[in-house]
C-alpha cells in the first residue's frame, strides 16, 4: 500500500470502507498497544493489487483499544480508523445494523412481537446516519480525483448516496456480503427508512451481490419501493475459497496437533459430522443438533459409532439474543449427551472457543460437513471443507445458503427448517461410498475455488473503473 505521506499528497486511488478493518488493537496491562491482524476475503483481495496501488482502507474503531490507538496516533500504513464515539457506534452497529438490517435480510424476526419501530429505533437510526456520515466524510477527504471506492455491507448502506453528494467525481461501488430480503419482508421496515436505504445504495455506480438470487431480491425491492434502479449497475461476484492459502495453512504442524487431539476425543474408528460456525442466529445450530438427535433415534446403529463435532464460536455477544442462543446451543448439546452418551462415547463434542487451526483439523477429518443455515449470503465453510478434506467429505447443505447455487449439484441439499429431512441427509452422508464421496469432493472443491478472493476483488475494481462516467 502507498505510504500515508504519498496519499496525503495525492489522495488514495482505491479505497475500501468497512465496519471491521484489517487490524484491531488491545491495550496490554503495561499500557502498551498490541496490534492483531485479521484475515478474510477483503484482506487477500486488497493485497492482490500490490503495495503501490495507492490503496486506503477506512474502517471504524471498534474497541477501546482501537480508540486508544487512534488517540495515540498509532496506526498501520494504508489504514484509517475512524474514532466514532462508542455510544454512536453501539447504536449503529448493535442497534440498527445487527438487530434490524441483519434480521431483515436473514428473515430472523419472531414477528408476533418484533420488530417494534418506536422512538428508541428512531434515536438509533440517527446514530446509523451519523456513523455512515463519518465514513462518507473520511472517504471524501482521502480519495484522489476519480478514485474507486468499494463500500462493504449493510453497515454502510447510506454511504454511497452521501459520498456521491460530497464527491460526484468518484467511482463508487457497494458490495453486500449478506442475502437481500424478499420484497414482503423488506416491507416490514418503515416507509421512509426503506426509501433511505435503497436511495443510499443507489448512490453507487455499481452494486455487487454474492448470488443472482440476492441481486434479484434487491432489484425487486427497488421496483416496489423506489420506482427504478437509475444508472446503477448490478453485478454478481460469488466469493470463493482461497485454495492456496487453505492447503498450505491446513498442513502446518499446529493443525496436525489439533487433529491428533480431536481424534483422541472422538475415539477410535468413529465417523464424524462436523460443523464450524460463528454462534450466529442464522446458522441454525440448534436444528442441526435436533437433526443429529433424530439420526440417533432413526438409526440406533450409529450410536457409539458417530460423533457430532460442533464448533460454535462466540459472535456479537453484546446482544442478549445472541447470548441466549449460545445458551440454547449448550443446553440442547447437554441434553443429547445426557440422554444418549455412554461411559466411552460423548455424542456431541461442542467447542465454543475460536481456534482456526482446530477448525482446519476438523475440516480435514470430517466424514460429513453440516452447513444448514436458515439463510446465508454465501457460507465459506461449505466451500473450505472440500478444499482441505483429506479423504473426501459429504456436504449436507441448506438450499438457503448462497453457496447452494454453486455447490448444490454435488451436495446433499436440505430445507434448513426440516429436521427429519436433515437427519436423513446426515445418514445419506455417512453411508455414501468412499469413491463417490471423493469424486463429489473433487468437484465441490473445483466449484468452491472458481473465484478466489484476489480475483473476486479485482473483478469488481475493474468493472467499476470501466464504467463510463455519469
Ligand atoms: O456476512 C456479513 C458480515 O459482515 C461478514 O462480512 C463478516 O464476516 C460477518 O458478517 C461478521 O460480522 P461481525 O463483524 O459483526 O463479527
Automatic annotation (TrEMBL):
InterPro entries: Channel_colicin_C, Glyco_trans_20. Coiled coil: none annotated. Its EC number is 2.4.1.15. Residues 342-353 form the Channel forming colicins domain. SUPFAM superfamilies: UDP-Glycosyltransferase/glycogen phosphorylase. Keywords: Glycosyltransferase, Transferase. GO terms for molecular function: alpha,alpha-trehalose-phosphate synthase (UDP-forming) activity. The keyword Glycosyltransferase applies. It is an enzyme of class 2 (transferase). Pfam families: Glyco_transf_20. Belongs to the glycosyltransferase 20 family. PANTHER family: BCDNA.GH08860, TREHALOSE-6-PHOSPHATE SYNTHASE. This is Trehalose-6-phosphate synthase. It comes from Streptomyces sp. 900129855. The lineage of its organism: Bacteria, Bacillati, Actinomycetota, Actinomycetes, Kitasatosporales.
Amino acid at each position: 500500500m502507498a505510504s500515508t505521506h504519498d496519499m496525503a499528497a495525492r489522495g488514495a486511488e482505491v479505497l475500501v470502507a468497512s465496519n471491521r478493518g484489517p487490524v484491531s488493537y488491545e491495550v496490554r496491562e503495561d499500557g502498551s498497544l498490541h496490534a492483531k491482524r485479521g484475515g478474510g476475503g477483503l484482506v487477500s483481495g486488497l493485497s492482490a493489487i500490490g503495495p503501490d496501488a495507492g490503496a486506503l482502507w477506512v474502517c471504524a474503531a471498534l474497541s477501546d483499544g482501537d480508540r486508544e490507538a487512534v488517540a495515540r496516533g498509532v496506526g498501520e500504513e494504508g489504514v484509517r480508523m475512524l474514532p466514532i464515539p462508542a455510544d454512536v457506534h453501539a447504536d449503529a452497529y448493535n442497534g440498527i445494523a445487527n438487530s434490524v438490517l441483519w434480521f431483515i435480510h436473514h428473515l430472523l424476526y419472531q414477528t408476533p412481537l418484533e420488530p417494534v419501530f418506536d422512538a428508541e429505533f428512531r434515536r438509533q437510526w440517527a446514530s446509523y446516519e451519523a456513523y455512515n456520515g463519518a465514513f462518507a466524510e473520511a472517504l471524501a477527504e482521502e480519495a484522489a480525483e476519480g478514485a474507486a471506492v468499494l463500500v462493504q455491507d449493510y453497515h454502510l448502506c447510506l454511504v454511497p448516496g452521501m459520498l456521491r453528494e460530497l464527491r460526484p467525481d468518484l467511482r463508487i461501488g457497494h458490495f453486500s456480503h449478506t442475502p437481500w430480503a424478499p420484497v414482503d419482508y423488506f416491507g416490514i421496515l418503515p416507509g421512509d427508512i426503506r426509501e433511505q436505504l435503497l436511495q443510499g445504495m443507489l448512490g453507487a455506480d455499481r452494486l455487487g451481490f454474492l448470488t443472482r438470487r440476492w441481486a434479484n431480491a434487491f432489484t425487486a425491492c427497488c421496483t416496489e419501493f423506489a420506482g427504478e434502479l437509475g444508472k446503477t449497475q448490478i453485478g454478481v461476484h460469488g466469493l470463493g475459497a482461497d485454495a492456496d492459502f487453505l492447503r498450505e495453512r491446513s498442513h502446518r504442524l499446529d493443525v496436525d496437533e489439533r487433529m491428533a487431539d480431536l481424534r483422541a476425543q472422538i475415539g477410535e474408528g468413529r465417523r464424524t459430522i462436523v460443523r464450524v460456525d460463528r454462534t450466529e442466529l442464522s446458522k441454525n445450530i440448534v436444528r442441526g443438533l435436533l437433526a443429529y438427535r433424530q439420526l440417533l433415534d432413526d438409526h440406533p446403529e450409529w450410536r457409539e459409532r458417530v460423533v457430532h463435532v460442533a464448533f460454535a464460536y462466540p459472535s456479537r455477544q453484546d446482544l442478549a439474543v445472541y447470548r441466549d442462543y449460545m445458551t440454547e446451543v449448550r443446553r440442547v448439546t447437554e441434553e443429547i449427551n445426557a440422554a444418549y452418551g455412554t461411559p466411552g462415547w460423548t455424542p456431541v463434542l461442542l467447542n465454543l472457543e475460536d481456534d482456526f487451526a482446530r477448525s482446519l483439523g476438523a475440516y480435514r477429518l470430517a466424514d460429513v460437513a453440516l452447513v444448514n443455515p436458515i439463510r446465508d449470503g454465501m457460507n465459506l465453510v461449505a466451500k473450505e471443507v472440500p478444499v482441505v478434506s483429506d479423504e473426501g467429505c459429504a456436504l449436507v447443505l441448506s438450499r438457503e445458503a448462497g453457496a447452494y447455487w454453486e455447490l448444490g449439484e454435488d451436495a446433499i441439499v436440505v430445507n434448513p427448517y426440516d429436521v427429519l429431512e436433515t437427519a436423513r441427509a446426515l445418514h445419506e452422508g455417512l453411508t455414501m461410498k468412499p469413491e463417490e464421496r471423493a469424486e463429489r469432493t473433487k468437484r465441490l472443491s473445483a466449484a468452491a475455488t472458481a473465484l478466489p478472493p484476489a480475483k473476486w476483488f479485482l473483478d469488481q475494481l475493474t468493472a467499476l473503473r470501466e464504467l463510463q462516467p455519469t
